[in-house]
Structure formats: structure tokens, C-alpha cells
Amino acid sequence: MYIFSEAAYFGFLQFTYSNNANKNVDDTEENDCLSSFVHLAASTRPWSLAKLIEAYQLRAPDFILSIQTGNVYDNDPHKQKSGIQTETERAIQHGLTDTARITHPWVTTSCINQDVIKLLGNALHRDICGRDVPCLGFCSWNYVPGDHQPVKQSSTTSTFCEMRYSMDNEHPPIHKYMMTPSANCDSLNSQGQLEPSHTHFFFFDDGSKDVKNMLLKRQEVEHELSISKVLRSPISGFQEKNAVSDSDIPIIMLLIGGDFATLAATCKGLAVGTPVVVVRNTGGIADIVAQLCRKLSPTDELAQFRKSIYIEECKKELKKLCLKENDAREQNEEIGKYVDVLNEMEELIIVFDAIEYNAKLEDTIADAILTGIKYQNENWGQFFGQNTKAALLLWCAVWGKDEYARELLTDRKAETAASANNAEQDKNQVISLAQQILFEALHRNTVPFVSLLMEYGASIEELTEEQLIIICIKTMNDDALVLNKSHVNFTSVKRDAKLSELKKYVEQRYNGYLRQYLNHYVTKENDREKKRTKGQLVREPIGEQKNQTVASLLAAEIYAAAANTATINKQSLRAISE
Q: So which residues are the signal peptide here (predicted)?
């Protein structure tokens, strides 16, 4: 159990190591990073914790990747790894890295199974992914063994101790704690050690080590985050008036190994329509579920006869696993219920096998999310209306699936070609849908997808003022956690006041770029120097923009404004802007 010299409710954790045996391969660099933590009561409601996470103002996630694992993982340190296991671990690490490069996920774990968490930490390292990936760990305050001592640091030891947060013009300090292994730390007993790969820890003070309860509580928090309207907004603290889609943030479970508690959490997620990617050859529950799904996949005449046999085999394998754990009798009573869920929700279970030809985990994760969207459309589509297709197009924008998006935008024309009136009405619907998705594509910097949408009638000129402001803010503040308080005040009660503050901020930034350009342009005497400086000065503010589409729009506006105020080269400047 962690021991603090004084009550610790929130702060930062920095990890230190007494010897190289306890270090991860990348910990030399990660040691300078701080992980935020919050100490919570066991009775904390999931809704309240979701609101706390919203307050961090992290970038809105494309989806939530929930790592499902347990103390069962096929990685005995005393045995040499097989070629299949080595290839599987390599595929997991590369797949998670590529997923973080392509998309912007949030990753959640239960801080258990250090081998899997180390694999996750290596995959999500900033130097490899190219960006910080929010990784949230949820566990009991008493779960982690007492072989680590968090020691509060004095304010003179590090500049990090001077970090502060602003609230009502007061600046209370945020404390930093060093995570140092104690002298009796057993490096082999590492199932519960915390890993510095997490950006945020949430410790529940429930006085127990019940992993199952923690897994289920984490799922409840994930659900609250999924339906959060605040997180679905691309700008922290501001909700768009006309959102593209009311669909929830997708949740995808990644099952690696796992014990009986993991099975309970996985089946609970499946029961509410959450897809799961099962990584084969990782042992435990993952291999049992993968084997069942592979056997149930054939659909020949004898499939129904064999299904009952395969289900009984699965139950026997689960009972064997129960014998290795406590409360085997109680778990045996639950096996039938869990197997029924696996059988009923088989379409939401996607098996990933690293040794298959051209197998990529990132593609499997994308397919699983698509499967989940289609499942929701088929079962609850009547409640979403036009948003069913919008959710699919958003998936295309996130994963760069241009060809599938083209199919979605053209299939209505083929269905209603018999009637000219229906065809015209359908064309208008396609244009309206493409216009909605254009906003998402612009602030996500998916240039090819923007071009595709414009082919089907979407127009930048039709974007609302609010959408343009959000795109500019998102582009200029893409890597920041919070906009500077002196520019944007999100404490305003009325929504119109918030929009006005955002608009002022964009205008200030734009006018600053324009003044910088004009001042340099009119003061240069040499014509060659003018031309060089003109291009350079336009590129300087534009070069700050990682979003190519928004950068082009900003450049055109600067040249057009310069043409209106210039006394020479007016036609040249106007031609460039056009």
C-alpha cells in the first residue's frame, strides 16, 4: 500500500528506480515525465469522475481503447519465448503505435499485468508516436503491492514543483511525489506495480484488492466519457451548436491474456454492444475466446450441430482456468452466462492473429470499430435517422478510408435512380451530409478527404461562422491543453459570450499576422527584397499551421487583405490570393 507523509488527494508522480532491473527499456527518457494522479473515495460516482477528466481539457478522442487484461498472460520469465509469442508482442506494439499515429485515441487500463503495460508504454512513447497519447489508469489504492514508496519532494528539488493551476485568481501548488522502490522490493513480483507510461492515475480508496470491481467501475467511467457532449466538442469548454452526429464516442476493447475477472468485464461490454479485439496466442481468456470464435465461424449444414459441442468445450476450458483462481464454485455458476454472451454477441468479437499473412493490429481495431457502428445502426438505427451514415463517414475521416466514403456518398443515387424527383432530393441529402462532414475533415487536417467531400458538393463557403472559428481555434491550439486565459475566458455563463470570446481571439491572431506582414512589406525599399520578404513573411505565420487546408485559407486571406491596402503590386497580390 502506498504511504504518504500527509494526505495526498491529487498531484504528480515521478518514477525513480534503484536498479536497472526494474526499469523499462525507455524509462531513462520517461523518468523526466510526470503522471497526474487523483485519490478518490470508493463511492465516487462514474459521472463525477468523468466530469473530473473533462476538466483536464485533453484533446477530444476519436475513440476510447480499453485494454482488457489480467494476471494471466503467457509470458513466463523463466521460459524462452516462442517465435509465435515474440511475433505477437511485436505486432501488438507496432499496431498500437500505428493506431496512435493515424488517430487520436484515449487509452484506459486497470494498471495490472506489468508485462502488458510495459508493452503498451513502449508503443505509446512520444518519440515513437510523435505525440502525447492520453493513457488513463484506474485501480484500487490498496491493489498495488507495498514495494513502492511515494515520497513528497520539497519545493527546492525541481522546477516541476513550481507548477501551478489557476482557479479564481488563486495559485495553490500542485505537489510532486517520487515513486521509489523500497529495499525489500521483489522485481519478479511485479503484477501490480505502476508504470510511468500512464499520463493519469485514478486511485479508488475502497480498502480491498478486488480487481473485478475495479474493471467494472472503469467500464462505467468509460461509458460516461463516451456519451460526454463536452468531449465530443473539438474545442475544450465549448460545445458546437449544430454537431455533425449525436453518436457516442466509440469504445473498443482490446483483450490480451486475461483471467476470470477480465472475462466478466469483457462480457459486460459485449452485452451493451462494445466490440472487442481478441489477441490470439497471449494465453488466458483471450486464447479460449479466440478458439471458440474460430470454431463457430463456419456456417455449413453441420454448423448448428457442432456449435453445442464447441460451447461445452469452451465451458470446460473456463472451468480449468477457474481451478487456478479463488472462489471457483462461484465462478463456475457464472460460466454458462458468460458463454451465452460470447455466443450471442459473436459478431462483435474480432480475432487478431499476428502470424496470419499481412495481419495488422491497427487494421483490426479499425474494422472492429466499424463493426460496432454497423451493429448500432442495425439495432438502434431508427433512433439516429440520418446520423447513421454520418457516423460511418466520420469513421472514414478518422481512418483515412476515402474509397469507402465514396461508396457511402454514391450508393443513394443508385438506389433511387428510377425517380428524377427522388434523385434530386437524394442529391441534396448527399450535399448536406458532405457539408456536415467537411467541418470534421478540416479540423482533422485530412486534405484528401476534404477534396473528396468537395467533389460531392461540400463547400467551404457554406461553413457557418461558428464552425470557421472552431476550425481556426483547433488549428492554432492543436497541441495545447488549455487556451491562454488572457485570450479566451470560458467562465462566461452564456454560450454567445463564449463564442464572442473565441471570435475575438481568432481576430487578434489574424490581425497580428496581417500587421506583421504589412509592416515588413511596406518598409522594404529593394524590390527583390520585398518579394523575398513577402513570401517569407506569409510563410512564417502559415508555417505555424500544421493543418494544410486551413493554412491555405489563411494565406489567401492575408494576400487579399494586402492587395486592398497596397499601393503597388495590387494586381499581383490579388492574383496570388485568388
A: none
